Amino acid sequence: xxxKTKHVIESCLSEAPCELDxxxxxxxxxxxxxxxxxxxxxxxxxxxxxxxxxxxxxxxRARAWDVPVFVLGGGANVVVADSGIxxxxxxxxxxxxxxxxxTGTPCLRSGxxxxxxxxxxxxxxxxxxxxxxxxxxxxxxxxxxxxRCYGREVADVLDETEFLDLSADPPARFRRAANPEDFGYKxxxxxxxxxxxxxxxxxxxxxxxxxxxxxxxxxRRDRREKGHFRLPSAGSVFKxxxxxxxxxxxxxxxxxxxxxxxxxxxVAPWHGNIIVNTxxxxxxxxxxxxxxxxxxxxxxxxxxxxxxxxxxx
Length: 313
Known about the structure:
Elements (H helix, E strand, L loop, with lengths): L2 H13 L3 E9 L11 E9 L3 H14 L4 E4 L5 E3 L4 E7 L6 E5 L2 E5 L4 H10 L2 E2 L11 H7 L2 E2 L2 E2 L4 E8 L6 E6 L17 E8 L2 E2 L2 H17 L7 E4 L11 H7 L6 E2 L2 E3 L6 E4 L5 H19 L8 E3 L1
Parallel strand pairs: 2-5, 3-5, 4-19
Antiparallel strand pairs: 1-2, 6-7, 7-13, 8-14, 9-10, 11-12, 11-13, 15-18, 16-17, 17-18
């Protein structure tokens, strides 16, 4: 850990004490669903009630000392370069569970996995988050990208978001009611603003617990049958575009690209819009295969595929 980073951490703890796990040289392959990625210079996982104040102090101090900060949620849509990440990685995995309730529906901390979020809602006899069952990723990440599957998206059930406005110094804490017009296909207003999502409250409805569980079991079964858990992956690689007239996976399938490999990265033999790590893949393999598939589709159809996964850096 260099002196600037050490100073940032020490000053943050002095201003905003919290429980803090600090790891230097932590392999990002251990933190991301693809199982690739080099070491983080410094990975921080704050936890406890002091989390929000520590995070606010961290962004303020890091900006003053010119130390980059990368926010890591569930690591589900991220491919970290083989060279790793410089500066600080802020792991939100210590900020989980319920953060109270709003009008009787759960308010969930941003580091909570979306699968746990669906379980928490089900345990309260509340319906609306079933479509997230079995999906990797965190609540904060799902709100940020307006996660979507099975014909539903987070914006359909989002009531309110609490966040830090990172454009202010020190960062200011706000609550924002969800406006459906601000969201789109895998798009949220948070993508165009410097924010850190702290929690999200959802509009859920009472439902027979057995019916909720049956639907959740069905989604888990469907994901298993589609091979989402066979090998390390990030799920869908490219966004779907209604203007193309068919799902991206079908376009890739029709071009005979299933099974295409670069190194140990492979287009899943069972699904054209999933790239998997067959064992020992590098981030460079995954990036190269993603770019190759996009280029082949462009040459054959003229369609520009938009990656859903984020390559860092």
